[in-house]
Amino acid sequence: MQRLSTSQADFEARLKALLAFETAQDPAVDAAVAAICDDVKTRGDAAVVEYTNRFDRMSSANMAELTLSREELQAAYERLDAAVRDALEVAAERVRRYHEKQLSTSWSYEEEDGTLLGQQVTALDRVGIYVPGGKAAYPSSVLMNAMPAKVAGVGEIIMVVPTPDGEKNDLVLAAAYIAGVDKVFTAGGAQAVAALAYGTETVPQVDKITGPGNAYVAAAKRRVFGVVGIDMVAGPSEILVVCDGDTDPDWIAMDLFSQAEHDEIAQAILLAPSEAFLDQVQASIAKLLPAMPRRAIIEASLTNRGALIAVKDLDEACDIANYIAPEHLELSVAEPEAWLPKLKHAGAIFMGRFTSESLGDYCAGPNHVLPTSRTARFASPLGVYDFQKRTSLIRVSEAGAQTLGRVASLLAHGEGLTAHAKSAEMRLKD
Ligand SMILES: NC(=O)c1ccc[n+]([C@@H]2O[C@H](COP(=O)([O-])OP(=O)(O)OC[C@H]3O[C@@H](n4cnc5c(N)ncnc54)[C@H](O)[C@@H]3O)[C@@H](O)[C@H]2O)c1
Ligand SMILES: N[C@H](CO)Cc1c[nH]c[nH+]1
Ligand SMILES: [Zn+2]
């Protein structure tokens, strides 16, 4: 894991190099994904089955073998250990309650002359949710995608999830059952994204695709955008911890591991105003890492995209945090609220020493599908608003047509658009 300091002359260049890890736009990945998407568009189910067999080491004969019914989801739910099932229910309920606050409603207002202006909010008809499953199974991601869609009132939710070696995860299926997912296909990667976007004999075409995934999933979502909507391109997980030096270094080391264990190219960075504290965290990492079951992934991630960075003070840490615009920002400091006004760019901010990022991953309530790769500069967490859309409403009264007609006519003539002008003028009384 790199040790950096903002006092180094080449710090900026080193930080940029650390952040410039963008495999989602790797030309080789893009080329492979383009071929897969075109093939699925042309050959439908047959291509989805072939790619799924190849990449997930399966031997399905047809799409029916990759289709799960609500009954199978229910059976998985019933097989769960009662304590685990309760935990899933608690998480689902907390996620639902949080997202209900995000629900937008239609509005309108009437002007003095009787003209009405407003906005009608409607839910999407059919969405596809991508649940990653290559290196780990993510029941929590089922909830984080499906619950806001449900709260928004989406008509139909189609889920895709890879099941490498054909191993289905009961927690994933049970989460789909709890969240009210309508159909599940056990396929992942670019082929599943393409199937949702273009539709196949078996997979219904959706209006929007949401959910995180690896570089192949990200490239496929970029590619099909326009045919369908997408939420964002959420890539490998990231954590940035800002610590004042007074948190148990073991806690901080484990928080860094928690995101590093997702992927060899996950990002884990610590900013602290004390070299001595960074030494302690480094020692904790060395002590705790050997016992971690996903040690190889964590080690690779910390080597590829990990750093312990010494800063001058917490003010400087906030400036760097804004530049990094991380998916998750842990503020492990005495008074986290005091620093909030300085922080603009992060997918989610975890405030205080007891708020481990992992609580947000599962059950705090806010969504864990968050902008990565510095896109928190302009993007927001997945939410109910991603499953709703807005339509403008305009009802002009006869009186309103007189005042607005004159304005529109002048502007239309200014643009040289005579039909526009006449259309407004014809409604003028004199
Ligand atoms: N931001 C979030 O909310 C969030 C949540 C959970 C996971 N994640 C991230 O999602 C990612 C999940 O990645 P994953 O790999 O575990 O699962 P995944 O489901 O995204 O990808 C697995 C699929 O990738 C495809 N694939 C693999 N190798 C391929 C190849 N050589 N050519 C073509 N296709 C290939 C296969 O079809 C396979 O089914 C991780 O980076 C993790 O950090 C993010
Ligand atoms: N940290 C991931 C988002 O980057 C979400 C997750 C799911 N399970 C565990 N973690
Ligand atoms: Zn996580």
How would you explain this protein's 3D organization?
The protein is of the alpha/beta class and 430 residues long. It folds into three domains: 2-20 and 236-377, Nitrogenase molybdenum iron protein domain (Rossmann fold); 44-232, Nitrogenase molybdenum iron protein domain (Rossmann fold); 397-425, no CATH class. The protein has helices at 11-19, 27-43, 45-55, 70-79, 82-100, 139-152, 170-179, 189-198, 215-224, 249-260, 275-288, 295-305, 314-324, 336-339, 357-362, 398-415, 418-425, and strands at residues 2-5, 67-68, 107-110, 116-123, 126-130, 156-160, 183-185, 208-210, 229-230, 238-243, 267-272, 306-310, 328-332, 348-351, 388-395. Strands 1-12-11-10-13-14 form a six-stranded parallel sheet, with helices on both faces. The mean pLDDT is 96. The chain binds nicotinamide-adenine-dinucleotide, L-histidinol and zinc ion.
Quickly list its features:
single chain, 430 residues, alpha/beta, Rossmann fold, binds nicotinamide-adenine-dinucleotide, binds L-histidinol, binds zinc ion, histidine biosynthesis, Ald_DH/histidinol_DH
Instruction: Specify the number of helices.
Output: 17
Radius of gyration from the CA trace?
25 Å
Largest sheet: 6 strands, parallel
CATH hierarchy: architecture of the largest domain: 3-Layer(aba) Sandwich
Strands, total number = 15
Distance linking N and C termini: 78 Å
CATH class of the largest domain: Alpha Beta
Overall outline: globular
Helix content: 40-55%
User: What ligand molecules are bound, each kind once?
Assistant: nicotinamide-adenine-dinucleotide, L-histidinol, zinc ion
- In total, how many domains does the architecture comprise? 3
| Beta-strand content | 15-25%
* Average of per-residue pLDDT values: 96
CATH superfamily of the largest domain: Nitrogenase molybdenum iron protein domain
What would the CATH topology of the largest domain be? Rossmann fold
Task: Please give the order of strands in the largest beta sheet.
Answer: 1-12-11-10-13-14
Instruction: Enumerate the spans where pLDDT stays under 50 for 5 or more consecutive residues.
Output: none
Q: Which structural category fits the helices and strands?
A: alpha/beta
GO molecular function, one term: histidinol dehydrogenase activity
Family: Belongs to the histidinol dehydrogenase family.
Protein name: Histidinol dehydrogenase
EC number: 1.1.1.23
